[in-house]
Amino acid sequence: MSKAPKISQQANALKRDFDRAFAEPMRPPAPQTLDLLRIRLGNDPWAVPLTDVSGLYSGKRVTPVPGRTRALLGVAGFRGSLAAVYDLPALIGLAPLPAPRWLLVAEERRVAFAFDALDGHLRVEATSILPLGPDGGTAWTRGFIEDGPLRRPILHLPALLARLTPQTPQEGNDP
Fold first, then answer.
1. Integer Cα distance of 126 and 143 in angstroms
2. Is 115 a residue whose pLDDT tops 90?
3. Are 100 and 114 in contact (CB under 8 A)?
4. Is the pLDDT of residue 51 over 90?
5. Is 148 within 8 Å of 160 (Cβ atoms)?
6. Per-residue model confidence as pLDDT tens digits over 130-146
7. Which domains does the chain show, CATH number per domain?
């Protein structure tokens, strides 16, 4: 007979906790964050969303191959498959790299981009992204972030990938 009062006490405690949860003010949702790689292209600070990157490598050997664009440095092996490697500064109109140290592999396609220096990781609130100015920036930038005294443009890798290949593949060619 001692079971009934104990169950009743537990039921009352559950009811009290349930009611109290509705009496408390609603909590605002957690802010959305964006994880970025802080990189340098020449002396210029940039940021790349980690969602656009599938890998980051240092000291990879790049084998030169002939190509239509001067920005194509060659090919490199990544986990058992080859990827074209492009000089990232040259692709966006900056001075080409003399000897790139870092390669990042795009998430969207098996293409790698070479760059000078890695400054680290940065997590920012999505609301802290500054819009492009009145000039609209470029097709491969998606706003800016403040990183201490630096203002870093956010590089949009999918836009660069779209520049590398035509939107509609020709018959018999794979994208």
1. 11
2. yes
3. yes
4. yes
5. no
6. 887 666 667 788 899 99
7. 33-164 (2.40.50.180)
